[in-house]
Amino acid sequence: MAKEYDYLLKVLLVGDSDVGKQEILSGLDDGSTESPFCSGSGTAHKTTTILLDGKRVKLQIWDTSGQGRFCTIIRSYSRGAQGIILVYDITNKWSFDGLNRWLKEVEEHAPGVPKVLVGNRLHLAFKRQVAAKQAELYASRNKMACFEISPLCDFNIRESFCELARMALHRNGMERIWRSNKVLSLQELCCRSICRRTNVYTIDSLPLPPSVKSYLRSYALTSSQCLNTVLNNSASIAKNLKCKTATSYHLKHNMRNGCVIS
């Protein structure tokens, strides 16, 4: 029986209690009949499958209660994790200040694992206590991607998990496996279609915004340079082949006539 996914990743949700980790899990499509489930050890587990560049990536997401007495559980589960989601509540400054403790715990037991910083409850932005710029600077200092999400509005949840999956697969070298089968973006398809019917000199006459024209010119130049390189290489190979053929012909002709080449 064929597998229902191409890659399987273990993801750990960490953060203080009451930051909405269960809200995030509940907003994801359920990938198995037995999850989500709660065990007596204080962890909740859920699986979901996302589509990433045409490949099915199954995420096994583990959540802890966020209380201090479950730090031993985090130590246990973080060892096999391929991605970490650090969650805070944008309406709770204390939950953001506590990220250093979680980050230290994760780095100690899962060093180098890709991480994404998630600010939950964006729908309560009118009660915001953590500025978006502050979170972005913190994420940048710690080499993390950063998202603000809202389970209530289903905003940026899947995007944050997709970014984490991409980072995890890239870290493990799996991205090279399907790069040739990568699904082209809509922008790439549009650029390819337009450049196929015009050239770099007539792009300025198109009824498009200046920023789009600039991107099209760059795309057209890059594509034409690649094409010219291929054509030049082909011409060089053909020329060399022609020279070798001519030399071989003259050598055979001279030998046939009894000529000696010194």
From TrEMBL:
Protein known as: SOCS box domain-containing protein
Gene Ontology terms, MF aspect: GTP binding; GTPase activity; metal ion binding
Domain SOCS box: residue ranges: 173-222
Keyword Manganese: no
Organism per entry: Anopheles epiroticus
Gene Ontology biological process terms, A to Z: intracellular signal transduction
Keywords associated with the record: GTP-binding, Lipoprotein, Magnesium, Metal-binding, Nucleotide-binding, Palmitate, Prenylation
One Pfam match: Ras
PROSITE patterns xrefs: RAB, RAS, SOCS
Cofactors, names only: Mg(2+)
InterPro entries documented for this protein: P-loop_NTPase (IPR027417), Small_GTP-bd (IPR005225), Small_GTPase (IPR001806), Small_GTPase_Rab (IPR050305), SOCS_box (IPR001496), SOCS_box-like_dom_sf (IPR036036)
Top-level division of the source organism's lineage: Eukaryota
Similarity comment text for this entry: Belongs to the small GTPase superfamily. Rab family.
